[in-house]
Design brief:
By secondary structure, the chain is an alpha/beta fold. It contains 11 helices and 13 strands. A 7-stranded parallel sheet has the order 3-2-1-4-5-7-11, sandwiched between helices.
Length: 301
Amino acid sequence: MRVLITGGSGFVGQALCRRLEEAGHRLLVVSRDPDGVRDRLPAGTDIRRSVLDFVDTPPDALVNLAGESIAARRWSDAQKERLIDSRVNVTRDLAMLCEQLTATQGRAPAVMVSASAMGFYGDQGERVVTEETPPHDEFAHRLCKRWEEVAGEVTTFGTRLSILRLGLVLDAGGGTLQKMLPPFKLGLGGRFGHGRQYMPWVHRQDLVSMILFLIERDDLDGPFNGSAPNPVTNAEFTRTLARHLHRPAVLPVPALVLESAFGEMSRLLLTGADMRPRRLEEVGFVFRFPTLDEALADILG
């Protein structure tokens, strides 16, 4: 099977590409710098600069992981536009590819698995959040809503669409832990604000398995919460991480400090959602790392 991946050279994309290559699939990856990312991807990966460059190599499946990090910098109006554009523009190109392949080949790719994020729900306090929970209207929600709406355009051409609303992705070498580990290893870690905000998380290997599961199950479409079944609060996360590192976690960061440093973006750290993967569990997906203890034991060894 030919699988086209946007964001294939990123933290999740690299692990997905390795798993797909091991399973014998042909990899098509979109990158603005093909030569610069070639060493990160399996040998033989077909890397091109644009989604639409693959019109002559029709993929069977699409995986949409592209998008600038939402926590890269403060949310100025210009940065908000960049965050939206980095997701919407590539996603719209995938819909255009489906349209062109329908016109020239008579069929679009069978399936697209498209990333979204837990930010779709906005701040949910302590209530349990499933795929049916109404969102709280704020920037993170509006960003994800727009992203998902544009992804929905592929269904016009008969492509089955599954959307994964991702929690914090954990593994060695990148993601959330890459930023958290240095201070925690020095014994300088602690909760953010009051620490009661939930942090949905997922081990990167379970996330890759989710993507493959949704590609292969042709009866599954719509939104799925892409997180482990046992989310934790920020205070629980920091205590657990510190315990695995054999370090204290006694230096909380006051909310006012985060709000002063990051402005509106501080909501990513000070709010959350008790997000549960209800639909994935209902259809039989099995987590290899269902608890944070199991995930950190694997990652930190």
